Structures are given as C-alpha cells and as structure tokens.
Amino acid sequence: MPRIVRCALIQASNALSTDRDLSQIRKTMIDKHLKLIGEAARKKAQILCLQELFYGPYFCAEQNTRWYQLTERVPDGPTTRLMQKVAAKHHMVIVVPVYEEHMPGVYFNTAAVIDADGRYLGKYRKHHIPHCHPGFWEKFYFTPGDLGYPVFETKYARVGVYICYDRHFPEGARILGLNGAEIVFNPSATVAGLSEYLWELEQPAHAVANGYFVGAINRVGTEKPWSIGEFYGKSYFCNPRGKIIAQASRDKDEVVVADLDLEMIAEVRKVWQFFRDRRPETYGALTMQSTNSVAAD
User: Fold this and answer.
1) Is 164 annotated as catalytic?
2) Integer CA distances (angstroms), 251 to 81, 134, 199, 235, 269, in order
3) Among 26, 66, 165, 280, which residue's CB has the most CB atoms within a 10 Å radius?
C-alpha cells in the first residue's frame, strides 16, 4: 500500500547586495523565504528543506571575519525559533540550514530539523569542509562536524541531512542509510563549471546504493562582488532507483514539490540487497589515512 509524503525544496537567489548591513541581509532573505515557504504550504508540502546558509549569500567566496556576525545558536537562536513557529503553523517538517555558533570562535555549518508540531528534533553539522578551490574558503568559517550522521524521526518520515560538499563522500551517505534514513536532504551552494557535471550523478548514485530518496538543493544567480560563477539551481528529487522525478530550473527562485512513495524503499531493497551483502569486516582501510597494501599474486 502506498505511503505518500509530499516534500518540497526551495532554491533562491540572494536578495540584497553583499555590502549591505548584515542584519538587513538576514531579514530580507528570511522574509523572502517565508513567502516561498507559504507557497510550499499552499501546495500541501509536508516536509521542506531550505538551501545551504539560506539567510544570506554564500559568503565563503571570500575570507572576511565580518561574516562571523551571521552566526547564531541552535536551537536557541532567532532563526530556529522562528522556523519552529512556522513549522507548527503549516504542520510541516522543516530542515533549516544556518551558520551556528557553538561558542565564540567555534562555528559550524549546521542544519536544524524541526518537526511538524514545531518541536526541535536536533541538528546535523557538516562534516566535510572544502578549502580547495578559489571562492570556497570554508575552513575559514566552519569547524568540521562532530555529531555523526543522525536520522530524525519526524511525523512523516525518517529524515537525514548531508550538506553540500558532503555529497562527494559516499561513506556518510551509507551511514545515513544504515541509520534508517528514508529521505536524505542535501542543501548546497555550488556553481557551474566546477561540479555541475556531478550534480545529477553522485546523489542519484547515493540513492541507488542506499535505497532511499534524495532531495538536492542549490541556490541560483550570481553574487557580486565575487566572481566564483553562477549558482545553477536545478534542485531535484530522485527516487531509490536513481531516477530524477522532479527538478527546478537553473535560473529562478522556485519551490520544487514531489510526492514520494516511501514504500518504494522496501521494493527496491528486495531486489538490490546491498545492505545484506556488505562486507564491513573488510573495510578497515576506510578509517586509515593511507594504506600501502599491494595485491599479491
């Protein structure tokens, strides 16, 4: 019997010039997203995920301590508290990516997960922090995540979160599956010319390898004065067979909605017994920095 959950993704462009007051940038972006969340609610979305660092630009394009002012506590900060009220109002599970202050000088790229009654369920902290391409200076801003790969039991589904650069690492994606995730959301900020060719390759592969749904979110537009490229949108949902079932455009604000039949997870796993046929006792090398083993004849 089908078990349908209606899910939504929001992709959006930055609303104000990056040289404006940070409190004004935050307020304008939150107001913009509240309207888009309202649109998702009118479309009867039950679970919604916002894009990475949704209440501002992708400031990692430069290294400037000014942006530390966008940090806030989770769950006691203003954005999480606001989204708890919004979630309860719309009876909607919301995944809320924010710039988290753990303590002065220790900051994380974090996503808070809020249940449909407004309860804060917990948070995921981005594990893999890039600092390898011009314009992606994330180690200047973020401490690597330290909370593992939690799966959140929401009213409608078991939800996991991976954030942006995490998607290039299959290890955490597998752990989310083993931890029981039915839907994994990946809020991102990625530009054309760098990883676009991987955008529709890696995450459907995670969905297939682990037998779950994936919701992939990317922002849109260019953000001056930085010139790291165009955020190309193309947010999408894919099913456990790796098929993209709903996708946004590449150049405009958009709410993507899809009905996910969670019964498909069991159907797919009956055919592809990847969890059964794993050989974890042979994977010890994965937790070592390097191995020098050479295959013997």
Assistant:
1) yes
2) 30, 23, 15, 11, 36
3) 165
So what CATH class is 4-274?
A: alpha beta
Q: Phi first, then psi: what are they for 289, rounded to 5°?
A: -60, -40
Annotated active-site residue 101? The verdict is: no
52 is catalytic: yes
| Catalytic site residue from 72, 126, 202, 234 | 126
CA distance 102 to 122: 14
In the numeric block, which tokens belong to residue 26? 């935050």
Choose, from 123, 164, 182, 254, the residue flagged as catalytic. 164
3-state secondary structure of 290: coil
pLDDT in tens, 235-265: 999 999 999 999 999 999 999 999 999 999 9
Pairing label, strands 158-161, 151-153 = antiparallel
The catalytically annotated residue of 52, 100, 101, 182 is 52
Domain assignments of the chain as residue spans, ordered by start: 4-274
Tokens of 30: 């939150």
In the chain, which ranges are E strands? 4-11, 47-49, 93-103, 106-114, 120-125, 151-153, 158-161, 183-188, 213-218, 220-221, 231-232, 236-238, 244-247, 254-261
Q: How many Å apart are CA 218 and CA 186, to the nearest integer? A: 9
